[in-house]
Structure formats: structure tokens, C-alpha cells
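Crash report, auto-generated. Payload:
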Amino acid sequence: MSDFIELGPLQLVLATVLIVAAGVVSMALQLGVERRLGIAALRTVIQLGLLGLVLEQIFALRNPVLVVGLLLLMTAFAAREAVSRASRHYRGILVDAWLTMAATCLVVGGMVTQVVVGVDPWYEPQYVIPLLGMILGNSLTGISLCLDRFMDHLVVRSAEVELRIAFGATRREALAAPLRDAVRTGMIPIVNSMAAAGIVSLPGMMTGQILAGSPPLQAVAYQIVVMFMIAAAVALGAMLVVVLAGRHFMGVDATLRLDRLTTGHS
Amino acid sequence: MSAFLECGPFTAADGEGRILLDGVTLSTDDGQFVSIEGPSGGGKSTLLRHVTALAYAPNAARQLDGESYKGAELPEWRSRVNLVAQDAPMIAGTVRENLEFPFCQRAGREKPFDDVRAAALMTQVGLERLPFDREVRTLSGGERHRLALIRGLLWNPSVIVADEPLAGLDPEIASVCLDLLLQFGRRPGRLLVCVLHDPEMSAHADRRLRLANGHLKGVA
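Recovered output after restart:
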């Protein structure tokens, strides 16, 4: 597992030449993105550097409280990011996004780390943190797409939703079409990337494992587990988040409450 | 004895804060045609949305034929007090799907969809050449309007609440549609409430109401 080429400070400085080259292109063509490129590069270094330091500590300490704490922090950030990407909001959207993230991590992450991979001890940070990180990163996209589409459907096709309600639709019946539409939208990215995996793109995780010296078939096995895990997480998360969101826009009386929408932040 | 349909009080304002409904209640007996007139923008459509429980009105009481409806019973209220909206909304799909979908929902579990009557009504309102498998997005405004009206009649609720059901129809078709609505409303245990713009049509009403300045009053 350890037959990979280690990167030190010198190698990182050499890599900086690449980003400087990109900046030079920007200046030569007067694209005006060199400043943003610089800031983004700096953020990459700082954020990943901090993450590296934190992970080194957590890996070394192997303390379950720290691992769970970090995971909770990650879900909170993921929920915030998912909500900030949605163009419409409602009171309580952040809580719904967080509950969804936490629940999918618990169910899908728990299944993968404890049953499929069989991590021992259960909180082994080397496995638990990157696997759950991938669930969160992908659920985030799925959940924000899904929420956005759900609220969009309620607004743009409100006449259709209310028509069903006018003929006595229950909450479940009235929300069935928006829910289907939203979950389908939320799942598009993962379905696309599963279909293209290995032909159009070499998935990032697999690439990383191969660079780190894993046999390709092992890397493939991990990648398949990860893809399935992400698909399950996105599907579950998308369904859960629209069910939670649906409660805000419709009670048991099945009255459509578009007045609950806000354009600003939750 | 209480009236057949009783609901309210409803209070509502428009976007600028102007009062449209100032504690309005609607109370009426069955077997009749009640018309609602009033200035445009005066809240008539808003009143119908409240009567049919599409608008949120947590403090309103609703009673039909001696039975009260609130909270989780509102879907049942809507299936009995059914709105035929002014803009003739449709679900994406065919003519048939649009006539049939209410019968596929829980509220329509025990009601059979009557193909023969659907075809007969289509003929009566001049839609006999419209195939059931035609996509509704290809229909003209007038065709949609009539289709929405037929859907309401086929559903056969206790009360039809219609918002300008005759607007934009040519006079001949409009009078056929009015007859169909009157046949529906003037039976015991049934009621027809319509917002109408045309005084000539309102003249047919058994009871004429006028909504203005947030109040609903009888027209002498």
C-alpha cells in the first residue's frame, strides 16, 4: 500500500508554477480572472492544509468523540451549502437540510462502513471520514437540486397542483407529482456519472487509490461501493428532504401555502 | 334550521393591503342558483377560493347539509364543494386524463367515471369532434373552458362553485352551458354558486349577491 511517491514542500512549490501559468494566460488575454484565480488557489491551500492537519490529528488520536464531532460539523456545513444554492427558501429549510444530511449519513454511511466494508473499530477515521465526506458532497448537490425543483414546481405549476386539491386530493396525492419531479431531478447527476464511469471519466476516488498504489481491481471494487452508496444516499436524501419540505407548504388540510416561500435566506 | 351551505367568516386583503373580504359569510339553501356580482378586482374570485377551501382560512367554519368540515376533513369538503376556476386549469395530459383524474384520487374511489355521459356532455357543449386522446395543451381557450365545466358536472359534487363559467363562450354555447348548470343546481341537495359579469346571465339567478367594499349583500 505504501509504494507511492511522497510529495514534499518542493513538489508543491513546483505545482504552483502551473497555477502561475494559468494566471499569466489570464493576464496576457486580459481575462481579468487572475485575481479570483489567486484567491481560489490560496483558499484551496489553506482549506486543504487545515483539513490535512485536522485529519492527521484525528487519525492519530483515534477518538470516537472527535470523529463524530467532525462528522457533525461536516453535515452542518453541507446543509448550509445545500440551502445557499437553492434559489427559493422557507423558514426551517436549514433544519430540514441538516436532518436529511444527518439521516442519510447515518443510514447509508452506517451500512457501508459497518456492514459492507466492516470497519474495525466502528469509528476508524481513515475509512469513516472520507466515505461519509463523499456521501455528504454528493447529497449536497442532490438535495439542493431537489429542493430547488420542488419549490419551483409548486410555484410554476401551482394551478395544476391546486386543480387536484380542488377535486379533493389529499396531501399525499397533491404532492405526488412535485415530489416525483424533484427526486428525479436530484438524481440526474449521480445517474449520469454512474453511466459514464470508467468510459468518459475515471472517478476521482479510484484515481486517488491507484496513485496511492492500490491494485486497480481493488480500487474498482471501492469505487463501485462508493457509487452505489452515493446513489442510495442521494435517492434517500432527495425523498426525505422533499417530504420534510412538503410539510411546510401543505398541512393535513391539503391547503397549498405558497405564502410560506421566502426569497431571502431561511 | 341551518342553511344547506354555510361558511365563513372570511377575511382577506390584496397585495396592497386593501380589504377584499371583511368577515364575509356565505349562507344559502339548496336547489338554487346563486350569482355573485361586483366590481372587478373586488375580491369575487378570492371569495370563491375561500368558499372552496383553496385559500388558507384557519378561523373559518364550514358546514354543508348539517355536517362540519375542518382540518383533515377539508379535502372531503373540496370534493363536495367543487371549484370550476376561471382560467380552466388542466393537468398535463390528454382530454380523457383531465376528465378522469378526479375519479382516480381517493375522493373519487367510490364514484365511477361515466364514459357515456362524458361523451354526451361533450356533444352538448359543442366538443363532439374533440377526441379523448387529444393533448390538452393543443386546445383553444374556449375548448379548455368548456372541458373544465364538463369536468365539474361529471364529478357531480353537492355544490358547484364556478368563476365566470360562461365568459368568452359564444352566446349559443353559453346558453347551453347555463342550462346544464341550472339543471345541476336546481335539484334538492345541490347548489350552484357562480361569479358572473354579464347582468343578462345573472338575471337567471334565484338569488343575486353583490360583493363590494369587502361586504356581501343581496341585490334587490
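Post-recovery validation: Chain B is about 30% helix and 25% strand.
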